[in-house]
């Protein structure tokens, strides 16, 4: 099985299981993930999310809708150390 076939075989349930394993560092049977397993799981999650809309991907931060307001002419900046 090549990588494309493997990624196509990942179901939403498997994806959720992989994400949970990475989050807690353990498989559902409570065995710890090795460093290699953690790396492979993260790669699979990232590859799976490529087919998802951006706003559903892990770590998505929506863009700001407004720009920071300029300081009022009467405001002063006080630096605290």
Largest β sheet strand count, sense and barrel closure? none
What is Rg?
Answer: 21 Å
User: What is the count of helical runs?
Assistant: 3
Strand-and-helix sequence, N→C? Answer: HHH
- The tally of beta strands, per DSSP, is 0
**Strand percent estimate:** under 5%
Average pLDDT, to the nearest integer?
A: 85
Low-pLDDT sequence parts: none
Bulk shape? elongated
Look at the helices and sheets and give the structural class.
Answer: mainly alpha
Helix fraction bin: 40-55%
Task: Give the CA-CA distance, first to last residue.
Answer: 60 Å
Task: Tell me about this structure.
The chain is 42% helix and 0% strand. It has 81 residues and is mostly helical. It has a domain at 3-56. Helix 2 packs across helix 3 (35-49).
Helices and strands, with pairings:
Blueprint: H1 3-8, H2 12-24, H3 35-49
Helix pairs in contact: 2-3
Summarize the structure.
The chain has 81 residues and is mainly α. Helix content is 42%, strand content 0%. The chain has helices spanning 3-8, 12-24, 35-49.
Task: Name the descriptors.
81 residues; mainly alpha
